[in-house]
Amino acid sequence: MTPQTLAVAASTISASKIYGSGEDAVYALNDVSVAFYEGQFTAIMGPSGSGKSTLMHCIAGLDELTKGSAIIDGVDLSTMKDKGLTELRREKIGFVFQSFNLVPTLTANENIRLPLMLGNDKGDEAWIQNVINTVHLQDRLTHRPSELSGGQQQRVAVARALASKPRIIFADEPTGNLDSTTGAEILSFMRKAVDELGQTIVMVTHDPVAAAYADRIIFLADGKVVNEMTEPTAAKVLDLMKTLGN
Amino acid sequence: MFRIALKGIVGRKARLILTSLAVILGTSFLAGTSVFSDTLTRTFDNLFSDVFKNVDAYVRSSQVIEADFGLEERQRISIDLVSVVENVPGVRDASPDVQAFARIIGKDGKPLGSDGQGPPTFGSIGEEFAGALWSVAEGKWATASNEVVIDEASAKAGKYVVGDTVKVVAQSGSREFTLVGIASYGDVRSPGGATFALFDSATASEFLTKPGFIDAILVSGDGSVSDTKLAAAIQAALPTTAKTETLTGAQITLETQDQIGSALDFFGILLQTFSFIALGVGCFVIYNVFSISAAQRQRENALLRAIGASRKQVTRAMLIESVAVGLVGSTIGLVAGIGLSKGLSALLKALNIDIPSGGLVVKQDTIFSTIVIGLVVTVLSAILPARRAGKVPPLAAMRATALEIAEPGRKRLYGGFLSIALGVAIISAVVAGANNSYLGFGILFVFIGTIVLGPIIARPVALFLGRPAARFRGITGVMARQNSARNPKRTSRTASPVLIGVALVTAVTALAASIKGQINDVFTEQFKGDYAVTTNNQFTGGLSPSLALDLNKLPEVDKASGIGLITVKLNNNGQYFTTIDPGTVEGVFDLGLINAKYSDLTPNSIFLAESYSLRKNLPIGSNVTITLGDATQRELTVRGLYKFDELAGNFVVNRAMIANSAVVNFDIGVYILAKNGVPDGEVQAALDKAVKKYGQGELLSKDEYIDKQSGQVNQLLGLIYGLLMLSIIIAFVGIIITLLLSVFERQRELALLRAVGMTRSQVRTTVRWESVITSLLGAVLGIILGIGLGWVIVFALKDQGLTSFKLPVVPTIVIMVMSFIVGLFAAIYPAWRATRVNILDALNTN
Ligand SMILES: Nc1ncnc2c1ncn2[C@@H]1O[C@H](COP(=O)(O)OP(=O)(O)OP(=O)(O)O)[C@@H](O)[C@H]1O
Ligand SMILES: [Mg+2]
Which of B749, B125, B108 is nearest to B483 (CA)? Predict the structure, then answer.
């Protein structure tokens, strides 16, 4: 598949995020223009401090750019107020964080439906059941997070991200806290969500094996896009990282 | 470790402030009330040392009857004694003194000053005297029987100027005078807000008391002998038949100060009691804050333990923090308390109670005890949380503690139930006949048990109370409900202050409702008339006895009968006797006579309450000897017994008995039966006109009258509500503090919720409903306990004549609604803080 034939789900144009000013200014993002395509699984990689999380937060409406613009579903986020951004996150974006993904007082089922319930939306029940089945959570629905394993918690988080059929899902090191088998399980669920359910996913990761699940990888360094790779394998990624490292 | 403790304090300023807040509030009420009552005492001390500042000797009757409520009735002396005193060597000047009831009537026909509730209304003598404190500010002193001088404040209030005609009501009736002067009292317009009508001595004696009699003689010496010698010389010069006693100026000052002092002491004790209750409630808040902060620091403490700190060291660090909080909090509390007492004084001034300013009295005792009590209370409240902090296993450092699931222990369950069972057993024993004095213990055990069980009850009750919120508020309601139940210990510690406050309010309300109900029943049973004329001025004066006679003559009236109250000495004890007019009383006031007629009550007879007669073995036909206020003795024969003693007391005599004596004789009420067939409007108009002529007394219909009687309970109720507000405020602040700490603790969770699409207003709703549920939890348990407590108190007062318990239904609903509102208000700031959580910061911190 070539990028030209795919619709853009989210993008940035000359996005910069600057902390501080003058001589102390830190460019977390420096003139970044990227696009994420619908129905694709995109991974973002790069050394620690390269701006991966910042990029994700800015596109997801959790943080503001200093310069440039972030666009989701054709809307420039900088034109929106807190309320609009909140609604956008609720309806058009799904999140999976590295840890502390779930509300401890709610059951797995309630956590999955949380964004829908916040919007007073019943959602598409058949879809939700499908999602729950896909991530194998049928018999865990009434449990609270403290009664679930780390892997199960992340699966609930993925299900939550999918439940409201968002335009795009952002995952920041979703497998960072998991052992490799459980991590692989989560990643294949995400892969399935893209292939079988037609979802769009953007994932930040440090792990070449994880990145290999993606359709496309964007490499960041010092706040800039430095490389891109399609149809990656773990070996190809490792090779590229070695060259970038030098 | 000390360094670590200090670092902990400085590092978390917000927590220090929140913890201190509870200490500050508790101690400021304590300091504020004691500074206020000390200031009040000194103000009155000064006031009364001023009154007799230039008086060297004070002559008065030695005949006195002391009765209940600390009231005494002292006999008056002859005005002729003044000239005897004037001729005693060493006397420069002697002045008669009268201080009696007199009411100045305003130009609009309404009496000045408040009727009975506020400062008193006096009539007195205003003459040139060396020791006088009154001075003429305008015009001159009254010198003729048709002249009067009034105090500046009254002149202003009544818009009177010199030359006006002023109507004054006194014991002998009402009369019009020409205003010849306006007087001021030292540098004050009127002492303590009282109103004064000042006459020359002859007029005062005749108009205010009984012709020829005065209250006392004020003597100013020429300085040739000591006050003690002067007093002795005067006493020696007076005939023993005059039955006088002569005090020095210092003695009378001290006596007056003591009298006022004991009244103020009572007030002070009341204030202190309630501020101690508030402080006790504050202990819960302090305890709660320390517990929460211990829980929030669990990982930090576990880390300290893991790297080698001992249990003791961790505990000690926390105790050191509590000492700092206690010291800082109570010092600020002291300062705030002084400010508070200043506010109270300003409030009095706003209520027109003009007390001479003398600055606030901040005793060393107050400073010392506030700080010591504040410190001790804080450290005591911190001991348990500190010990718990020390017990943290080093392993806890490795665990995440997002949700503190503490299963309430079995010990707690058994302990709580045991305590409640014990309390209930004691109360049942008392109900079954054991000594009333054990009731307090019973109540205490039930309270302790309920609070011990709190964490166990909290979860199910909070979940139950949260049901409507969860149902109608969607996911935010569901989360609020879960949040209020997620940490039952914390929720119950937060609700406990509310519980105590609400329980006390409910108990007092139930007691008041029962008393009011009883008053209502009693009056409905015994008051048979259609109208009543009453006055609130029952102790400094009352209705003129001639009012009843006048009303009786009206063609619209069937009967009007006056009821009075006199103080009488019986077996050397002061007693109140009810005086009635046997000729008119039948059909307006029912005593429930047993085998007797009202006409049996001749001036030489007495009716006794049946119970009293049995108790004292005084059957019909026996004789009792009494001493009247004028020191004369009467022998009365018991001619009848009656059942209804709630209003009449134990003794009823014929008013004719005192008709020609020097005994002060007022009516406290006139009961009226309208003539059959006369329309209500006409009767009322005629009565109104007749009563107005007296410038005193309030005409009420039967229903109004009965309502008013039970309404008097409301005043006391208001005062107690006001004092309980202190506790409620602390409970309120307790909720705020806990919510703030919870919001702080749940920052990550809030950030997550915000990230996945919770709007700010939904965040607010969640915090708000959690607050409401917590507040209602305290209120529901408090109301249940309070109703029980009220019932128990009513039961304990059975012997005092309180027979039926009334459930305060409407007030209970009001309390629930108020608790709801308190919950809403307490949530405002914490909810706002919750919306300000920075999503990224919270997500990034681990
Ligand atoms: N609030 C802030 N103030 C100042 N600098 C910040 C702030 N937040 C991030 N930065 C800086 O911005 C840069 C990018 O940070 P970012 O969190 O996006 O990196 P990252 O690629 O996600 O790294 P990691 O792989 O470690 O998560 C870093 O140099 C970081 O120090
Ligand atoms: Mg990152």
Answer: B749
